[in-house]
Specification:
The chain has eight helices and six strands. The protein is globular and about 55 Å long. The chain is an alpha/beta fold and 212 residues long. Helices cover 45% and strands 13% of the residues. It has a six-stranded parallel sheet with strand order 3-2-1-4-5-6, with helices on both faces. α7 links the parallel β4 and β5.
């Protein structure tokens, strides 16, 4: 297996999105049930993204959907700060020693800048689904990475903590690596991904064996 670049999901895979939302809603509504507000927030965003992919709603960038969710949850325009998982920064630096790293996120361009600045994530290039005017798992989003890399899809490895995201990547021919996180969408018994890793260090070790 020859891999030209690693394509990383960001929300949930490299940053702890639920924790960031939870901290934001607690600040905005300290007396409310934070877990319920997080559920409400994420449910709104996921539902609206599905509607956009299905053509039931015109495209709106993720920061618009987040503002809608914030209003529904807290009646404010609070913006979460999303921190990286403990292994994200060091893991990306290690992987960048041997691989081109491409971020591929449902986050808007504006949100990506904010996330990367706060989390200190390292990329050779970060792509937003905004460039495709749709959301993952629409194949058009994964095609952004294929077009940027100018290589065959099977030479790209999609890395995510969400099985649904990896299935979307498989639909256009990308290789896949599931990285376990406390949040996300674990694989089912029928999923067949190329790699299963406990974290980025484990993924780096597995990829190193391909170079031997």
């Amino acid at each position: 297996m020859e891999i030209d670049a690693l394509v990383f999901d960001i929300l949930g895979t490299l940053v702890d999105e639920p924790a960031g939302i939870r901290a934001a809603v607690r600040d905005a509504a300290p007396d409310a049930d934070a877990d319920e507000l997080v559920r409400l927030w994420q449910s709104h965003v996921e539902t609206e993204q599905r509607r956009i992919v299905a053509g039931e709603r015109p495209y709106a960038p993720s920061d618009v959907l987040d503002r809608e969710a914030a209003q529904a949850a807290t009646k404010t325009d609070v913006v979460p700060k999303l921190s990286p998982w403990l292994d994200s920064v060091e893991g990306l630096a290690k992987l960048a020693e041997h691989h081109t790293l491409i971020g591929l996120s449902n986050a808007s361009r504006t949100s990506l800048l904010r996330i990367n600045a706060h989390a200190g994530l390292r990329w050779h290039q970060a792509l937003s689904a905004e460039d495709a005017q749709t959301y993952k798992p629409d194949p058009a989003v994964y095609e952004l990475a294929v077009g940027l890399a100018e290589t065959k899809p099977e030479r790209l490895l999609m890395v995510a903590a969400h099985a649904w995201d990896l299935r979307g990547a498989q639909s256009v021919g990308l290789r896949t690596a599931y990285v376990a996180r406390p949040v996300g969408d674990p694989p089912t018994e029928t999923d067949r991904f190329d790699f299963h890793a406990d974290g980025l260090a484990d993924l780096a070790a597995q990829l190193a064996k391909l170079r031997m």
